[in-house]
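Question (not urgent): is this output format expected?
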Amino acid sequence: MKYRNLGSAGVKVSSLCLGAMTFGEADEKSFMHKVGSDEDTSHAVLDRALEKGINFVDTADVYGQDGLSERVLGNWFEKRKTRDKIVLATKFRFTMGDGPNRTGASRYRIVKCCEESLRRLKTDRIDLYQIHMQDITVPEEETLRALDDLVRAGKVLYIGCSNYAAYRLMDSLWLAKTNHLSRYVTLQAQYNLLVRDLEREHGPLCREEGLGILPWSPLAGGFLTGKFEQGKPPAGGTRLGEKAERFTRYDVPRNWTILDAVRAVATETGATPSAVSLAWLLAKPQVTSVIFGARNLEQLDANLAGADLELSAKHVEVLDKASAFDLGYPYAFIQSTQATW
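Got this back:
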């Protein structure tokens, strides 16, 4: 396992980050119903991940229901005495509980969410506290000041953002600089061979400002594992197979072309399509750590191979060309003259 700085921060994290979204068996009220692992399995996955060198775990208060994923992690910390071996990341922003302040990024709610996450996680600090998505109803300065207070109180060590528009992220960084507030050190965002929109503005912005990118959905919901065949319905027991409408979104010519390229590189390197897809992300500028999920030990072991695979420049180029996308205006116009990434 290799380790990288968390963006511009000094702390080192593993190049693969274990995503805890599937930890715990959620009931029918949760969007994670029927796609999670029981607590014993989740703890076994965490044990193996730690053994293999992963020291970075990402969760969120909304994973499961009533903070289920955080509670499963908290129980693992308590039983295994592993808290100080893990760089712990969690998130706030989306709906939890009832009432008019059940969602959002106000000072009132951030402080409340942080205290509740600390209690569920059975810890005295959150190493990376992230806003799950920008909140256009709250001034960014209010959000930053609340997070800065938590950092100064020692309850949070670093802060990050997720699902931010580039203009909002730049505004946030400027506010932090001019008001001497803690600044975001990471951007967690959807990024994979199928979804490369991040490269238009967020990539150059993160490079210039020193933010580490934390890609989520690196395997595009499982599509890039190579388990699926064009013209055939997805098998049951997979995330894409459970929801036909989700698979339909992936079932387009461009994506099958990308998957063919991934399989070709996998054959040449003796690796799996999953490992190739993860390694492609790790070869990209500003990517600090790639967040992947594992519902069982088999999935964990398959994904761990991505940390050890180093793609050649030729293989990266093959995948880049297969997954090329329409930049749109003005990005394509600019790129015709000079590279933007």
